[in-house]
Specification:
heterodimer, B: alpha/beta, FAD/NAD(P)-binding domain, 4-stranded parallel β-sheet
């Protein structure tokens, strides 16, 4: 079974749009930090 | 003065050694025993395996770091552990001279990393088999040479078949294999050779994107997105075929034998294959004070060290019992023995196991590498320091509370590279704390593809090597 889903052209555009990706980079770092400090790191 | 011995200097053992050295090194005796005198940054061996990174960029000498942290380093392979009270010691064999080394301890951390059980699948592996591996640096170098030779054949017009995935029905570390397959895809695109290769993902996962952790789920624009649909899109987009629910049972030259959930037996041809082997615990001898074998008190049948988990629960019960997962990684019989990283025995699988009609158990083992290893190494080190200084432990972190990130890069360019970034929180679903059907925090969990992931991967390589060299501020960087 090989479903036919693929990324749309719009999704591919955002994956390579550097300004948006800079924003996602910041979000990702914040999410990791949030999750790390929500866990029991001490 | 207390004596602490750490067996192993990978993500778990090295992290434990750094924290122990930092807290206790000046007052107590901390010793690391390892059969390798270098630290290897395993996540970047994927790039070594396609010739995009020099092996020496992924390693550094351990002794200068330990000298700085007041940790003794013994370059020897541990062989025996004698944990009975009164005379507790580790016996090892010095690398090079073969001389016997005896290390007495008050506290022991067992963190030697996995035994790569290529023998568990006939014909598997680069030493006595027909497939490759990126699980050790020599293996990654060998895989690189074979892959580059394959590229030369493709340049001459030859069509080839590449198979990447897991080489045993109970293998883990699907994330590393996934990263390798997408890196190969990207590399072949850049070389203009992609049309010469038929690439197949062959895995023991119940579904694409499961990764041995029951998949990853996130909330985006009000909808729940699962890693299965996301990774399926990645494979379809890249023209990578995939076959999951399959346990590899045997390899012959150019031919992989497998069985699937339905019990069907089949073969897949290949010109180049990288399959992750089953991981087992290191085959140390555990010896009691009268010379008797006490392995049953220390390890499970696969050689992983028993710790403070609840063992023996059937999967449906385990999936609903987050407390079954160990929090302090302390052996229940020998309270001064701890296990960190892949060395501790998990209470069971995270993904749903499946036994087919031929009685073949196809069940990805829980991944316990990378961030998970580092976190456990820290928890164990801080608890040992607590026990020595205060007489009681104050730290705990089960995998049902731990966060883990996996960055599966596709190329190493910061301009047109790409990566799938996966963050799961917690690693093992906790259906009591997170009441959604997945048992995870759908807000902090993350699943995304883009060039930002390539930046993240680059940043992680450099920040982690900084941390592991114990350079200024190393403790601030999360494991």
């Amino acid at each position: 079974m090989q479903p036919s889903q693929e990324f749309s052209k719009a999704e591919k555009f955002w994956m390579n749009f550097k300004l948006y990706q800079l924003w996602r980079f910041v979000v990702l770092n914040l999410k990791i930090l949030a999750a790390v400090y929500q866990s029991k790191r001490s | 003065m207390a004596k602490v011995v750490v067996i192993g200097a990978g993500f778990a053992g090295h992290t434990a050694a750094l924290y122990l050295g930092s807290r206790l090194g000046k007052k107590h005796e901390i010793t690391v025993i390892s059969n390798r005198d270098v630290f290897g940054y395993v996540p970047s061996w994927v790039w070594v395996g396609i010739g995009h990174m020099k092996p020496e960029q992924t390693i550094f000498k351990l002794k200068p770091v330990y000298d700085k942290m007041h940790v003794k380093f013994v370059h020897a392979a541990a062989k025996e552990i004698h944990p009975d009270e009164g005379d507790q010691y580790v016996l090892g064999e010095e690398v090079g001279s073969g001389k016997e080394v005896r290390l007495d301890y008050d506290y022991l951390v067992v963190a030697p990393g996995p035994l790569l059980n290529f023998a568990g699948t006939p014909g598997l592996g680069p030493e006595n088999g027909f497939t490759h591996s990126i699980c050790s640096l020599p293996h990654a170098i060998k895989a690189r040479d074979a892959y580059l030779a394959l590229c030369e054949r493709m340049k001459k017009g030859e069509q080839v078949k590449i198979v990447i995935g897991t080489g045993h029905p109970g293998a883990t570390c699907q994330g590393a294999a996934f990263e390798y397959i997408v890196n190969i895809h990207k590399d072949l695109v850049k070389k203009g050779l992609r049309d010469k290769a038929d690439i197949l993902w062959l895995s023991n996962e119940p579904a694409v994107g499961d990764f041995g952790v029951n998949g990853v789920q996130i909330k985006r624009n009000g909808h729940v997105m699962r890693s299965e649909e996301f990774l399926t899109s990645v494979f379809n987009d890249h023209g990578i075929r995939y076959q999951v629910q399959s346990g590899v049972t045997k390899i012959e030259e150019g031919k992989i034998h497998w069985q699937n959930y339905e019990g069907e037996e089949g073969t897949t041809d290949f010109d180049f294959s990288m399959l992750i082997p089953q991981f087992k615990g290191q085959p140390f001898k555990y010896i009691g004070k009268d010379g008797e074998d006490i392995s049953a008190k220390m390890v499970n049948p696969a050689g992983f060290v028993l710790v403070d988990g609840k063992y023996g629960l059937p999967y449906p019960e385990l999936a609903q019992t987050p407390d079954a997962w160990p929090a302090r990684y302390q052996n229940p019989t020998y309270k001064n023995v701890f296990a960190a990283g892949i060395a501790f025995a998990p209470p069971g699988p995270i993904s749903k196991p499946f036994t087919n009609k031929n009685n073949l158990l196809i069940a990805p083992a829980p991944p316990r590498t990378g961030m998970v290893s580092g976190v456990i190494g820290r928890v164990v080190a801080l608890n040992i320091a607590d026990l020595i200084e205060k007489g009681e432990m104050t730290h705990s972190e089960p995998m049902t509370e731990m966060v883990a990130a996996c960055i599966a890069s596709m190329g190493d360019s910061l301009w047109d590279g790409n990566a799938v970034t996966i963050v799961m929180h917690p690693v093992v679903p906790d259906r009591k704390k997170f009441t959604n059907e997945f048992g995870r925090d759908l807000f902090t969990s993350h699943l995304e593809m883009g060039v930002s992931g390539a930046w993240m991967k680059f940043m992680l390589h450099h920040t982690f090597i900084w941390k592991f060299k114990a350079l200024p501020g190393w403790k601030i960087i999360p494991e």
